[in-house]
Amino acid sequence: MTIKTINLGATALLRTSALIALAIAPPALGQSAPAPAPAPASPGPLTIQADKPGAVINRDIFGQFAEHLGLGIYDGVWVGKDSRIPNVRGIRSDVVGALKAIKVPVVRWPGGCFADEYHWRDGIGPADKRRTTVNTNWGMSVEPNTFGTDEFMDFASQIGAEAYISVNVGSGTVKEANDWVEYMTAAAPATAAAERAANGHPAPYKVKYLGLGNESWGCGGPFTADEYVTNMKPFAHFVHNQNPAQADPAIDFTKLINDLMTGKGMDALPRNPNGMMRVAVGPNSLDGSYTDAVMKAWKTRSPIDWSIEGLSLHHYTYGGLPMSEPATGFGEKQYFTMLKQTLGMESNIAMHSAIMDKYDPKKTVGLMVDEWGVWLKATPGTEPLHLRQQNSLRDGIAASLNLNIFARHADRVRMTNIAQMVNVLQSMIITDGEKMVLTPTYQVYKMYVPFQDATFLPITFNSGEYRLGTASLPKVDAIAAKDKDGKVWLALTNLDGNNAADISASAAGVTAKSAIGEVLTADRVDSINTFDTPNAVAPKPFSAKAANGSLVLHLPPHSVTVVRLDK
Ligand code: AHR
């Protein structure tokens, strides 16, 4: 299906404050007078502290985001039941097959900015009776509503992912949101369950996460942090998951009062471990106002009134001015700048985590980075508001750096959703009609599958330096983890655009004789996969042997390597 566009809607993009906040010139690189400097430091020996396990790297950290935007849903996921493109109930089979291979744990839908103008009833029932609307945020594309709740749940089930539903807080009502969750989760004899059954799905769906609005400081608002808290609380209180497996246990008031009187407080409130997790709107990149206001309200809430289980963070990497960074044909300076900005995710998460720690030292509320990725110039010749961009090896490297940062913060970061899954921004997959190609970012996600639900293992090493002019970045970034079978995995990114890195690695308490895995690299950092050359950037086998008790790993320039340590 092709999306028709009407030439309106650019103001909606300007309302997307994530863009505005990051419209900051990138740091100047290599502009100061050259000073004599010693040769860049080489990476030093790496030790995996296998005897000091950290937090579990929640598999939902490898989550995805699929918005009604450009060709993200229509063409990218949904082709319709009568399409000549092979499909199951309208959902394209090639995309499903590719996503299954990276074990997508969770998908956020329907937006994004789209969510705060989405009315779920437009997207249920017989396809020919659904309302046609216009996507006011994204190029005024015609929205046929053919892909609605039941189609999304079918898609999530086909790829084996959990559902993360963003309800409309901006222009919807609490009742509308509750009716939607009731439609998805109620069991017979509820009327909502009968309606869902009539639409083909008698059994209640599972909704693992519920987003309470999106960017309420931007396209989903505009609300100050305090105004958002006031708006959000009734959604957190009144929107109920009725799926018997997910409903919260009834509150035992006698126990609660006793707990409160004996100082255990609201933390003692029982919670169904399978209960739906509510995610409040949180910060726009470095702005801490939402973090503080939402967490303060959470801390001072009455336990029987409302709660949240997650706080959202949106943080994109833009390179130059928003949407000016070319996706290909860039030089080393631009490569370096993009990686430098990407590494800014670390301090950003640390900053918001510190605010959260003030109110929630036990880390009960998760930080959910539910929009992140590189946001580049749109592919020439495409509608700019469809955010269709190419995806190079540089983007794969940026993805690995972000995933490493999330893993290092796994005690607080419980879910992330890269923007976006297909055909939009830093996507896994690009399609054009019946053609499909997997991006370097996809390849990184595939290589990182062993880290899903693995236990983080700290590492110590000197990362070395990748220098450009007088600026420098760490040369090598790495994480390690132990999977459920006790196998130790190591992911290493060599950021250096020119030079290989030789690094020796060992793990305390583990005698590794060899390491086996894959490496992702290409001759140029702007290499891409195309429909004609789909494997230009594809993982190749990688192995290393131990010498004198340490593994010797040879990491090519601008590469991502993932290995399993073998005894
Ligand atoms: O991912 C694209 C857009 O970026 C989302 O719709 C919005 O939430 C963010 O600003």
Would you summarize the structure shown here?
The protein has helices spanning 10-14, 17-21, 93-101, 149-159, 174-185, 191-198, 225-238, 253-261, 289-299, 332-359, 393-408, 440-447; strands at residues 46-48, 63-65, 87-88, 91-92, 106-109, 133-135, 141-143, 162-167, 209-212, 277-280, 310-317, 366-374, 413-419, 429-432, 435-438, 455-457, 459-460, 465-468, 471-474, 476-482, 488-494, 501-507, 514-520, 540-547, 550-555, 559-566.
Textual characterization of the structure:
The protein is α/β, with parallel strands linked by helices. The protein has two domains: 3-26 and 57-241 and 276-378 and 387-451, Glycosidases (TIM Barrel, Alpha-Beta Barrel), CATH 3.20.20; 471-566, Sandwich (Immunoglobulin-like), CATH 2.60.40.1180. The chain is built from twelve helices and 26 strands. The protein has helices spanning 10-14, 17-21, 93-101, 149-159, 174-185, 191-198, 225-238, 253-261, 289-299, 332-359, 393-408, 440-447; strands at residues 46-48, 63-65, 87-88, 91-92, 106-109, 133-135, 141-143, 162-167, 209-212, 277-280, 310-317, 366-374, 413-419, 429-432, 435-438, 455-457, 459-460, 465-468, 471-474, 476-482, 488-494, 501-507, 514-520, 540-547, 550-555, 559-566. The strands form six sheets. Strands 16-20-21-26-23-24-25-22-1-17 form a ten-stranded mixed sheet. It has an eight-stranded parallel β-barrel with strand order 2-5-8-9-10-11-12-13, surrounded by five helices. A hairpin with a 2-residue loop joins strand 18 and strand 19 (471-474). Helix 5 (174-185) crosses helix 6 (191-198), helix 10 packs parallel to helix 11 (393-408) and helix 11 packs parallel to helix 12. The chain is globular, with a radius of gyration of 24 Å. The N and C termini lie far apart (52 Å). It binds alpha-L-arabinofuranose. Alpha-L-arabinofuranose binds at residues 16, 18, 67, 111-113, 214-215, 219, 371, 419-420, 425.
